[in-house]
C-alpha cells in the first residue's frame, strides 16, 4: 500500500507536532515525492540552530519508523514568500515616513 500525504500528516499530528509545540514550533508537510518528504519548520523552530537535528532526530526518525519506505526527510530552509511580502510591506512603510 502506497504512503499518502494524509498518512504522513497523521503521524506528524500524533507524534511530532506535540513535541515541536512544546518548543513553540510546528512542522508543515510541503511535499512527498519519490520516497522523499519535504518539510518546513515554523514558529520558534524556524531558523533555530537545532533545526537540522530536529529534522533528523525527531521528524525523520519517527516517520521512518512508521514508514520504512521513506528514504529521506528534507528540511526547506528557504525564506517563504509570505515572509518576504511582510518584510517588503514593513520596509515600504518605513520609507514613506
UniProtKB/TrEMBL annotation:
It comes from the Bacteria. SUPFAM superfamilies: Fe-S cluster assembly (FSCA) domain-like. InterPro entries: FSCA_dom_sf, NIF_FeS_clus_asmbl_NifU_C. Pfam families: NifU. PANTHER family: IRON-SULFUR CLUSTER SCAFFOLD PROTEIN NFU-RELATED, NFU1 IRON-SULFUR CLUSTER SCAFFOLD HOMOLOG, MITOCHONDRIAL. Belongs to the NifU family. This is NifU family protein.
Amino acid at each position: 500500500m502506497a504512503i499518502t500525504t494524509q498518512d504522513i500528516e497523521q503521524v506528524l499530528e500524533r507524534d511530532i507536532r506535540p513535541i515541536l509545540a512544546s518548543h513553540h514550533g510546528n512542522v508543515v508537510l510541503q511535499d512527498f515525492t519519490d520516497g522523499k518528504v519535504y518539510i518546513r519548520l515554523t514558529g520558534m523552530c524556524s531558523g533555530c540552530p537545532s533545526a537540522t537535528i530536529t529534522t533528523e532526530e525527531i521528524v525523520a526518525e519517527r516517520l521512518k519508523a512508521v514508514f520504512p519506505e521513506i528514504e529521506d526527510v528534507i528540511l526547506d530552509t528557504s525564506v517563504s514568500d509570505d515572509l518576504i511580502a511582510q518584510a517588503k510591506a514593513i520596509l515600504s512603510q518605513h520609507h514613506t515616513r
